[in-house]
Amino acid sequence: MHPPLALHMHPMCAEIIEQFQQCHLDHPIGKFFGKCTDLKIKLDRCFREEKAVTRKANFEQSKKLKERLQTLRKEAAERSPEEKNFM
Fold it and tell me: What is its main location (predicted)?
């Protein structure tokens, strides 16, 4: 199984998605007997690569967010008790 083949959701794989969908249109019976399998394999690989890129970007974003949070916590800990009571 593959995720929904919406082009806007998978811009990296748009060309392969179009080829795969065209193969299914061109071979309505052959698709059940492996006519489009090579494109399916390419599509699966592309989805894996796309997911890896997304995962890496999300990890980098979370690292930046964690660093920012640690900085804010450190600044809050360094405040004097009077300032803490004020806020």
Answer: mitochondrion
Q: Which tokens in the block code for residue 84?
A: 């803490």
What is the spatial distance between Cα 27 and Cα 34, in angstroms, rounded to a whole number?
10
To the nearest 10 degrees (0 to 180), the angle between helices 37-78 and 14-26 is: 150
- Cβ atoms 36, 23 nearer than 8 A: yes
- Encode the chain (87 residues) as per-residue pLDDT tens digits: 677 888 888 889 999 999 999 999 999 998 889 899 999 999 999 999 999 999 999 999 999 999 999 999 988 888 866 665 555
Q: Of the candidates 86, 5, 84, which has an alpha carbon nearest to the alpha carbon of residue 44? A: 5
